[in-house]
Amino acid sequence: MCELLVGLPEVKVLGVEDVAGETLVVHVEQAGDRPWCHRCGGRSRVKDRAQVVLADLACFGRRARLVWHKFRLCCGDGDCEMGSWTWEDPRIAHSRQAMTDRAGRWATVQVGMLGRSVAEVARELGCDWHTVNDTVVSYGTALVDDPARIAVTTALGLDETLFVRRGEWHRQEFVTSIVDVSPGRTAQLLDVVEGRKAVPATAWINARPSAWREGIAWGCLDLSGPYRKVFDDALPNTAQVADPFHVVKVANGKLDECRRRVQNDTLGHRGRKTDPLFRARRLLTKAHERLDDKGNSKLAGLLAAGDPKGEVRTAWHAKEVVRSIYDISDAALAETFVCELATDLQDQDHPVEVQSLGRTLARWFEEITNWHKASVSNGPTESVNNLIKRIKRIGFGFRTFNHYRIRVLLYAGKPNWNLLPTITPR
Ligand SMILES: [Zn+2]
After folding, report:
1. Distance 27 CA to ligand 1 centre (A)
2. How far, CA to CA in Å, does 362 sit from each of 56, 62, 223, 338?
3. Which helix (H) or strand (E) holds 46?
4. What's the predicted TM-score (pTM) here?
5. CA of 92 to the centre of ligand 1 (A)
6. Confidence of residue 379 (pLDDT cuts 50, 70, 90)
7. Fewer CB near the last or first residue (10 Å), C or N of the chain?
């Protein structure tokens, strides 16, 4: 009867520690046929026993522990050279795991699929944070390493993501997210690699099967040299596409630079909260259509007061025109438009920041206009980034890259959860 309630195959319940209000502790040992000697095939005998305490699923609404009295076996034949060994049963728990197998798979779903925090799940099970984390990483690694997780990809995106701020100076460390942004399906995080230099991402792509690499028609990137190099080196036949989000971000960055310079030129100090340009900074970078009449007239007033030569206004206008690149649907029209825009912005009469923006558009002309041919949107990379941000908020501050990698891949990497019951934890 008790065995039935414990719900594990081939175990004998040795006893239950049942103190009201405390964790339920169930002692078991294996009840099946003892294995035979691997060496001579003879009958084994019990040498000694060791107790392994395992976190288990809650039982009748109470936290539970399983104490597994594990057998150490040795050969019954005194002349056999077989040393002693432990009688394992992965249906109870895998070796070196601190949780029962069923609790391990449950915790992996809670943390990996549902995005609950390790601390919360550990509290529910009444065990240590590390016990849950190690378990999720063990089962999760097996799940995300499934080669079938990475399917045919026609568009591949590279994006830098802040991983951690470390040390006294909050030094930022970045990772590169590798995302499947194939048109017509939701984006999938394929993997993350350390750093934002070209080498790790190049190595990752080169490690994929050649058929997979050859299927990639489009490579999406921010306006950065390293990722351009990744595609040049690893996927030379892939057309590169500049991510619209990053193109607009560059335009906003130039606008900001211009605002700060004009601020300093006119008032001789950095922005203070009463300065018109400082007060205009949020209105300036906001999308024009998102400004209501009040916002518009406020912006006009602040510019009239703080921007005597109209430089910030020009930079603001340039940003808005860059945004409008993405209102164009026709590829040929977009090429003409971007080409003319890049030339116009470089006009000597414009503020230096606007000229610099024009040079950037000229340098990335092909990548920017490829977007109109590829019809990959920037939505996917962003949606994956939002999922990553959610996991980072929950895990507040990952220290270990591998823990971060497994957690974000479980959540945003579309692992096949149907495999969970059959995988072997690593
Ligand atoms: Zn033997």
Report:
1. 29
2. 61, 66, 12, 8
3. strand 44-59
4. 0.86
5. 26
6. low
7. N
How many A from CA of 333 to the centre of ligand 1?
A: 81
Distance from C-alpha of 156 to C-alpha of 321, rounded to nearest angstrom: 27
pLDDT digits (tens, 9 = 90+) for 32-45: 899 999 999 999 99
To 10 degrees, the CA torsion angle through 137, 418, 191, 216? 170
E strands, 208-335, in order? 218-221, 239-242
User: Which letter does DSSP use for residue 183 in this model?
Assistant: T
User: What are the tens digits of pLDDT across the range 302-329?
Assistant: 998 899 999 999 999 999 999 999 999 9
- Strands laid side by side in the 188-194 sheet: 188-194, 171-180, 155-166, 218-221, 239-242
Using the mean position of ligand 1's atoms as its centre, give its distance from the Cα of residue 37 in Å.
Answer: 5
How far is ligand 1, taken at its centre, from the CA of residue 49, in Å?
Answer: 19
Q: Give the environment of ion ligand 1: residues with CB less than 5 A.
A: 37, 39-40, 42, 75, 80, 82
Angle of the 293-306 helix axis to the 311-324 helix axis, nearest 10: 140
- Token code pair at residue 276: 């018109």
The mean pLDDT of 71-81, rounded to a whole number, is 92
How does pLDDT run across 4-16, given as a tens digit for each residue? 778 888 999 999 9
Ligand 1 centre to CA of 71 (Å) is: 16
State the distance from the centre of ligand 1 to the C-alpha of 69, rounded, in angstroms: 23
Token pair recorded at residue 335: 């090429």
Alpha helices in 14-149 (DSSP H): 101-108, 118-125, 129-144
How much distance in Å is there from the Cα of 396 to the middle of ligand 1? 52
* Mean pLDDT across 103-124: 96
Domain ranges of the chain: 2-93, 244-374
